[in-house]
Amino acid sequence: MNPHGLMFHHFKDDRHKGGQGSISAEVFAHLLMSVGLDRILSASEWCNRANEGTLKQEDLCITFDDSLLCQFDIAVPVLEHFNKTAFWFVYSSVFQGVEEPFEIYRYFRTTQYANLDDFYDEFFDACSVFYPELTNEGFAMFGSSQYLSAAHYYSDADRRFRFFRDEVLGPTKYHALMAKILTKHQVNQKDLSADIWMTDEHLKYLHNRGHEIGLHSYTHPTRLSNHPIVEQKAEYERNALHLTQVLGRVPRTMSHPNNSYSADTLNLLTGMGITVGFRADMTLVNKRSNLEFAREDHANLIRNFGISC
Ligand SMILES: [Zn+2]
After folding, report:
1. Comparing C-alpha atoms, which of 74, 87, 10, 13 is closest to residue 45?
2. What's the gap in Å between 66 CA and the centre of ligand 1?
3. pTM, whole model, 2 decimals?
């Protein structure tokens, strides 16, 4: 085992419904104790050892992507109880009034339905009304595909939904369809987004207590490495500008949104003074640089330790 990060996304409690794959404060605490609290370095110690080349095989760190309010509300008290600091990788557009629909839709489907299957029923009904031919084709294609079959934590219904969203409809048609469903439920994106993300004040709180706030692009593109390098540069520079303005310090760490990057991306980040970066999986890369540390997803940790959620 090489030194790596523990990667956390969604958390749940009475206020934050959380939804699929989300974990409670109790499960988070249980997980940290299961991996071994003494193996978990503070964020600054991880950076120091990474830069000195002195990270040990067993070293771990805690990381949070996407600056979600549920992470702050639920995970921070646990971290403070254990006296730990973490990495927080932030995409800035949502701090500056831009609504990021994918996360909003996720929140919508976990809070507005008694269970996810009710949402899927409505989604596929709307699909067949607005895109009848595409829907028929999509079902035929999905039937013979192995789409996401390696992702053990998805049900067949989850896989079918993601196949339609990402492969059959694509972003434009998916947004149009979700807009119709949201209108039918009489909710709008702005109201939904108020409970999803942290604010600048949350970032300052974390920064002032020794946590490390790092880059995660500006708009969180689905496939950042497909964008021309000038666009990637704009994504990370706007992101860095936001964090520098809020925290009074230039960021030096990052994680790759959706694990998407190229050799050019790494050169760009190095040129911006980033010295520590994280992938979103445990894949070993041939020549691992300090911008490609591996991370284990909390879903895998829960399974490996046999923890029930
Ligand atoms: Zn992300």
Report:
1. 87
2. 5
3. 0.88
CATH topology for the 4-98+197-304 domain: TIM Barrel (3.20.20)
Residues 6+ apart with CB under 8 A from 26: none
C-alpha 65 to ligand 1 mean position (Å): 5
Least-confidence region, from 211-220, 240-249, 300-309:
300-309
Residues with CB under 5 A from ligand 1 (ion): 65-66, 257
Expressed in angstroms and rounded, the spacing between residue 125 Cα and the centre of ligand 1 is 30
What is the whole-number distance in angstroms between the Cα of residue 299 and the centre of ligand 1? Answer: 15
Is it the case that residue 288 has pLDDT exceeding 80?
Answer: no
Task: Provide the pLDDT confidence category of residue 283 given band limits of 50, 70 and 90.
Answer: confident
Written as six digits, the tokens of 117 are 């299957």
* Cα-Cα-Cα-Cα dihedral sign, residues 233, 255, 290, 223: negative
Task: Write out the residue limits of the CATH 3.20.20.370 domain(s) in the chain.
Answer: 4-98+197-304
**What is the distance in A from the centroid of ligand 1 to the CA of 214?**
12
Partners of 11 in the β-ladder: 23
Which SS3 state, helix, strand or coil, does residue 66 take? coil
**If you measure from the C-alpha of residue 102 to the centroid of ligand 1, how many angstroms do you get, rounded to a whole number?**
11
Q: Which pLDDT tens digit goes with each residue over 155-190?
A: 899 999 999 998 899 889 999 999 999 999 999 888
Confidence band of 148 (pLDDT split at 50, 70, 90): confident
